[in-house]
Design brief:
Mean pLDDT: 96
Low-confidence stretches: none
CATH superfamily of the largest domain: Alanine racemase
Distance between the termini: 56 Å
Strand content: 25-35%
Largest sheet: 9 strands, mixed
CATH class of the largest domain: Alpha Beta
Number of domains: 2
Bound molecules: ligand LLP
Helix content: 25-40%
Shape: globular
CATH architecture of the largest domain: Alpha-Beta Barrel
Structural class: alpha/beta
Radius of gyration: 23 Å
């Protein structure tokens, strides 16, 4: 459920008309709903009720500081994968003890900065990384809390580019080597083992792969405890999928996911951490765009809109489907379009053969499910300024990242003295 609904045929974000925002801020523009963000966080928090837990928002999904603060103020933790994300979480007021640091390539500088700034735990993906964290922590006179990310070798049944839990993927250490790696971790002076971490992929629409992975983690917990390691936290990663289409069967709900977590891990007396990104932010955001032209091709009709692949890359990169709806809900979807952006590549196509209401130049459309992996993956390709972001809260809205002017965009380049 989200908070983007038609009222008398006009699309609203909570209590604000989407067309009013588009008029005030221009297009393309991302619009996020505070109520939806909060609701989705709450669903996960409730789903794990009764077990000690921390819901850590995966900052990579949407890293706007206002979005992070909206969630952080509710008590959310943050899962970060770079010092940039860490500093954003800090800027949103989230304390280090609620921030976990994931990722296979943490640099020494990133480890140092986050250790000094305060960190809940490093999710470590290799022995060289364990060694580096221990060395830096020792230099600083600190002890680094660590969970080792294990790769359970399960098939997440999702798009190949976002599956992470098979042995051929670059992530984690093979679960078969976990005992040796934990023994190594325990031997290092700057490391304190606190738990186990696992993340098998994104946009999972079935609980079975999660269940298979978590069962392996449960077994490993017992084995490692028997060997004397303290396993007081299990970080279960993110990955629960969202409905991208209104018309098909929805993925499992957070409550169902929570019940499965309780079943597989509830007996272990551990604190559960989860790292959802897409489910919290995805359907809390729209990308609103204006039709520039309707172009009649030889056998296709192109709806040319002012958003492009640089603003929302998911269709070009993963063949992802986003529902595209008119901002003025008028007629039935009787016209078939290829929805394309202005960028000079055929890949700049949002949808092919999509049945939509008849649209004219100047009218607005909204891409649904664009709140996660939308603005964060935007670029300035074709020298298109980065798309702005707006946050709605009830009947108010605020620009939470303005559109840079062309002057600002160009002024970042500098001309060397020899030119
Ligand atoms: N934790 C870790 C360690 C991750 O690598 C990810 C996502 C998450 C949590 C959050 O997963 P989520 O709950 O959002 O599924 N750009 C792609 C998605 C990449 C996901 C990468 N890792 C897309 O647009 O579909």
């Amino acid at each position: 459920m989200d908070h983007f609904n038609y009222r008398d045929g006009v699309l609203f974000a909570e209590d604000v008309s989407v067309a009013d925002i588009a008029r005030a801020v221009g297009t393309p523009v991302y619009i996020y709903s505070t109520a939806t963000l909060k609701r989705h966080f709450q669903l996960f928090d409730d789903a794990l009720a009764g077990m000690p837990h921390l819901v850590c928002f995966a900052v990579k999904a949407n890293s706007n500081v206002a979005v992070l603060k909206t969630l952080g103020d509710l008590g959310a933790g943050m899962d970060v994968v770079s010092v940039g994300e860490y500093l954003r979480a800090k800027a949103a007021g989230v304390p280090g003890e609620r921030i976990v640091f994931s990722g296979i390539g943490k640099t020494r500088e990133e480890i140092r900065t986050t250790l000094l700034g305060g960190i809940r735990q490093f999710n470590v993906e290799s022995e060289p990384e364990l060694q580096a964290i221990s060395d830096i922590a020792s230099e600083l006179g600190l002890i680094a809390p660590v969970a080792v990310r294990v790769n359970p070798d399960v098939d997440a049944h999702t798009h190949a580019k976002i599956a992470t839990g098979k042995s051929e993927n670059k992530f984690g250490i093979p679960i078969s080597r976990a005992q040796a790696v934990y023994a190594f971790a325990a031997s290092l002076p700057g490391i304190q083992v606190v738990g186990i971490d696992v993340h098998i992929g994104s946009q999972l629409t079935d609980l079975a792969p999660f269940r298979a992975a978590y069962q392996k983690v449960a077994e490993l917990t017992e084995v490692l405890r028997a060997e004397g390691h303290t396993i007081s936290r299990l970080d279960l990663g993110g990955g629960l999928g969202i409905p991208y289409r209104r018309d098909n069967s929805a993925p499992p709900l957070p409550s169902e996911y929570g019940a499965m977590v309780r079943e597989t891990l509830g007996h272990l007396d551990v604190e559960i951490e989860i790292e959802p990104g897409r489910l919290i932010a995805g359907n809390a955001g729209l990308l609103v765009s204006r039709v520039i032209y309707v172009k009649e091709g030889e056998d296709r009709r192109f709806l040319i809109v002012d958003a492009a692949m640089n603003d929302l890359i998911r269709p070009a990169m993963y063949e992802a489907h986003h529902d595209i709806i008119p901002v003025d809900e008028s007629l039935a979807p009787s016209t078939v379009y290829d929805v394309v952006g202005p960028v000079c590549e055929t890949g700049d196509t949002f949808a092919r053969g999509r049945a939509m209401a008849p649209l004219n130049a100047g009218e607005l459309v909204a891409f649904r499910s664009a709140g996660a992996y939308g603005a964060v993956m935007a670029s300035e390709y074709n020298s298109r300024p980065l798309v702005p972001e707006v946050l709605v809260n009830g009947d108010q809205f605020a620009v939470i990242r303005p559109r840079p002017s062309y002057e600002e965009m160009i002024a970042r380049d500098t001309i060397p003295a020899w030119l």
